């Protein structure tokens, strides 16, 4: 069993480190733009980074559950499909984080979220 799940375990840890990296980016942005916790409002640059991290971490528990489920039950003995899809999802998440945190679409996002409140 250990041989079957070693790649899933490694991928799980890489995913956790990726989520920790996103959280660290928010901490660095808080220091850079002088936004003290628990406040989430600040300069647009900070709000972009904060929102990007929130977007990436909203579905993280579901992602980890699906990774282990797919790796253990859907492809027993062969964890390659689960790990490959996890790598693809994590790379798109990292690209989305870097794009959203540096994009100038915050005003568009803010105006849309104001419509729902």
What topology does this entry show?
Layout: H1 2-33, H2 44-58, H3 60-74, H4 80-102, H5 106-116
GO molecular function: glutathione peroxidase activity; glutathione transferase activity; leukotriene-C4 synthase activity
Pfam families: MAPEG (PF01124)
Organism: Amphiprion ocellaris
The largest β sheet comes out as: none
Tally of domains: 1
Query: What is the name of the CATH topology?
Result: Four Helix Bundle (Hemerythrin (Met), subunit A)
Q: What is the helix content?
A: over 70%
CATH C-level class is Mainly Alpha
Number of helices: 5
| Low-confidence parts | none
Would you list the SSEs in sequence order as H and E?
HHHHH
**Rg value:** 17 Å
CATH architecture: Up-down Bundle
Q: Compute the number of strand runs.
A: 0
* Percent range for β-strand residues: under 5%
The CATH superfamily is known as Membrane associated eicosanoid/glutathione metabolism-like domain
Measured distance between first and last alpha carbons: 49 Å
Structural class based on helices, strands and sheet pairing: mainly alpha
Shape: elongated
Mean pLDDT: 77
């Amino acid at each position: 069993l250990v041989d079957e799940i070693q790649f899933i375990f490694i991928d799980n840890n890489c995913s956790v480190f990726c989520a920790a990296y996103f959280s660290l980016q928010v901490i660095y942005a808080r220091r850079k733009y002088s936004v003290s916790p628990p406040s989430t409002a600040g300069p647009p640059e900070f709000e972009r980074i904060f929102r990007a991290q929130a977007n990436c971490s909203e579905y993280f528990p579901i992602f980890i559950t699906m990774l282990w489920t797919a790796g253990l039950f859907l492809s027993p003995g062969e964890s390659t499909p689960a790990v490959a899809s996890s790598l693809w999802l994590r790379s798109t998440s990292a690209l989305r984080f870097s794009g959203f945190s540096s994009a100038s679409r915050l005003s568009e996002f803010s105006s849309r979220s104001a419509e729902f409140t």
